[in-house]
Design brief:
Distance between the termini: 103 Å
Keywords: Membrane, Transmembrane, Transmembrane helix
InterPro entries: Diguanylate_Cyclase (IPR050469), GGDEF_dom (IPR000160), Nucleotide_cyclase (IPR029787), Rev_trsase/Diguanyl_cyclase (IPR043128)
Number of strands: 16
Radius of gyration: 40 Å
Number of domains: 3
Number of helices: 13
Low-confidence stretches: 1-14
Structural class: alpha+beta
Pfam families: GGDEF
GO molecular function, one term: diguanylate cyclase activity
GO cellular component, one term: plasma membrane
Strand order of the largest sheet: 3-2-5-10-7-8
Length: 525
Amino acid sequence: MSFFSTQTDKLTSFSASKLNEGWDIRVDSDFVGTVNLPRVVEAEKNSIVSASRLLTADFNQPQTILIRGSLQNVIVKLNDSIIYEKSFEDNIFNTYASIYHFVDIPEASSGSTIEIILVSPYKNMSGTLNEIHYGPPSTIYQHLISQHAYKLNVSLLMILISFIFALINLIFFNKQSQHNAYLGIFGIFISLWLLAESRILQLYINNDFLIGSLAYVSLAASPIAATAFLKTYIFKADKKLFSSLCVIYVINLVFIITSHISGLFAFFETVTITIVLISIGFLLTLYSLIREYSHRKDILSRNYLLLFSFFTVFLLLEVIGFANKNFTGTANYATSGILLMLIIAFISTILTLSNKIKEVYEKEIYEVIANTDQLTKAKSRFAFEKDIEKLFYNSTNHLALIYFDFDDLKFINDHFGHNEGDKTLIDGFNTIHSVFHDYGNCYRIGGDEFACLSEMINLDLFKSLKTELHYKLKEINKNSNYQIRISAGYTEQIHGEDQKPSDLLQRADQHMYIDKNKNKAQVKN
């Protein structure tokens, strides 16, 4: 069996003609009457329902008759000779499907008797006689597309929107918006149902099992995702109720599939259960939304109450149509309602994503500001406290702390101005950073106090780097009206003795002041 159809007749501007008047109807050979189509007659399951009439003068030319079968085997006879037959096999891989039948009528058939025989294993479908059209093959295809392309295009658009909707939430929001991913999955399932109900899927996919099962399986799967969305996002207080409802929907999906595979019930025979369960779920959701809004009076509850009420109207119209056996109009109301609901949800997600990106961008800017000293561009005291806390408690490795303090900065501010004092801090930090940054991170932790954290520097390396720092400062001081001098104190974490980061700070500060006193003594001498 070819999976994809290759019918590519060129469309013309002709209109398909109707062949609906004057059909003689018989059920199991008993004459019912002469009727116009469409019509539903009383018939038991597996009853032989036949409709016959004479062909008009139009059939002097070759024509194609379009017959819509509703879960029925179809036989077409011309003057008692079978010219077309379609029978569904009674197995899980060739389930009964509601499809169109294209029957070619040869030329010079005017005045001939055409008889259409319909047999269905389902009582609700046995007596269904749909409209019949005829015309050239290209006109027939044009008629089908003009009648049903809207539903097909909408369902494909909804699949695309739902897929993007779910993907955006999984990629950009991850676990924070898992509920929206569920909503996107719901949209995919409900879109597949609409695709199956578009009536022209068979023009592109020539597979009876897929055409006959897609609507039932996707319809049963869709409330699972919808209920998962509700319980994770809206009804956290009623989580147990909606978790139980979700389990019921999963059981129903498993039931309809296993029943069909085992031959216990066909898909069509279990669809009523699915519709009843969905209706119960909608009523529970509507009730919970009303109760939620009455308690919280928040915008979220109000918006979802309005959206769900709107969608419920469309769903109830579908249920009423199905209960009245209006199978030809299946999904007409739901198509527009679901599309509008998903578009609103999609736009809402795009707006939320835009705000999320803005928040992330602003957060990153604020973090940069918080972690950076605006004068020297060194890492800030806030960053220092975070890093030393992390390294002190989470590392079993070597941790060294070097504490720096500028000598005579007050003298520079008083005699050369605060701008020169700021320049001293900038030049001094740049010198510290140039010497120590390969071994760790450097921070400004106070007015003229700086520090470096390193897991690589030991005492011998510190002495070497300190000598390099003093040498670079002397080079800067050669062309300066004042001298930049920096004292430095070194310590390292003593595991088992140091109880908190402040123990290192206190010890490094003490060593720094010892170095400062030495520097002052050298200056005096």
